[in-house]
Amino acid sequence: MKYFFLFFFLPSLLNAQNIKIIDGDTIHIAKIKYRFHGIDAPELSQTCIHNNIHIKCGELSKKKLIEKIGKKKVNCQKKAVDRYKRVVAECYVNNESLSKYLVKNGYAFAYRKYSKKFVEDENYAKEKRLGLWSMDFQYPWYFRRKK
Predict the structure, then answer these.
(1) Which tens digit of pLDDT belongs to each residue from 6-43?
(2) CATH at 92
(3) Is 5 left (phi over 0), alpha (psi -120 to 50) or beta?
(4) N or C, which end of the chain has less CB nearby within 10 Å?
(5) Which helix (H) or strand (E) holds 89?
(6) pLDDT level of residue 87 (50, 70, 90 thresholds)
(7) Which domain holds residue 16?
(8) How far is residue 28's CA from residue 20's CA, in Å, rounded to a whole number?
(9) Number of domains present in the structure of the chain
(10) Cβ burial, residue 118 (10 Å; 0-12/13-18/19+)
(11) Residue 17 near residue 73 (C-beta atoms within 8 A)
């Protein structure tokens, strides 16, 4: 019976990753803070309007990231370190870029100030009216200026 117990629980222990999703473009893995390179997601306090209803679009973006990651392992490739001492990186689940996923599905925006890599994905989401593109919203960089 001891062997069954170890066999049953060992795979989840081996795949365990101490990950915390902060918002739509920031995660913590163990003690390292990662900010996704080239994208900007709405702030948690930010709202959008859909059919005259205020939606917490920052929370929605975070929720989509949580769903995408699930219990899968996240791998990040460091690009730089920002002024807040976060590692700026492109992070992946099953070799799929989380940044590309969020932008292409309309839950984050290409952050052209730092990269043009996800502009095509943003154009796709905009054209298809996916995610936030089906709502009235303010770009996160404008929202932060007004805070």
Answers:
(1) 333 333 333 457 899 999 999 999 999 999 999 999 99
(2) 2.40.50.90
(3) alpha
(4) N
(5) strand 87-93
(6) very high
(7) 2-146
(8) 5
(9) 1
(10) buried
(11) yes
